[in-house]
Amino acid sequence: RRPGESRWRRLPATFRPRQRPSRFREGSRASCEPYSSSLFQDGFIEGGKSYEEYMSWLTTTIPRDFHGLNPLDQRACLEHQRAIFKNAGFPTHDWDVILNGSVGMIGKMNCAESILWGLQNDAHPQKVAATEFGAYILLDRGNRSVNVYLQTGPTLSVPGMSWVNPLITADLAKGYRVLTFLHLHPFDASNTKYQDCAGTCIPSGPDLNAFAFDLKQFKAEQAWITNGDASFRFDLKDLSMFNGEVERGVTEVYRGETAPAV
Fold first, then answer.
1. What global pTM score does this model have?
2. What is residue 64's DSSP assignment?
């Protein structure tokens, strides 16, 4: 490929939005694309200039402002955050089961994840502020097509996605299966005071509640969490391995007045 040319241009899918009914909330997008195995290939990233600029910013800013932490070393990021929570008196079980390999795997972000990250970044640049998206990814019975329901947003939480419920229910009736729900856990360079730059692919308590709903309601198979570089993926049959110790908002108060310099 030519320098600067996205590898994604050789693939059939682009996650172009379908025409959206008026009831869809702002930032929602529904797409149906031909299946390609390259979509789910780790490290096969749809990047381009905006992604390269983000990665340059990330790998400069986080080490500079967070005691040399390497944001591309996922184990180091987990251990860094674990130490902050431990020092604040919280249990560390949910970090430990990832770090010791008891559940799931961490790998490089795949092509589908990178495209969805790019759509979030286009709407809400990650260099400006950390924001999140959520996306359901469905496959048909013969792995011939991929349905994606994406919700971008300007906040550090995924906007409500109840609009997908009737659409996914209809897809299931047509023979689709819910492969996964994908959630962005972005790096947040603003929290220098307490030295928690986030960006860890560990499910929070609210995440686990949402995954439990997906398992019960849609028979979802997996959960994926990406930070824009790497992703943690696990089978929802292993959901009970987590205790839900990472509560949204808790660390806004307790993020380490006594946190060690890591």
1. 0.86
2. H
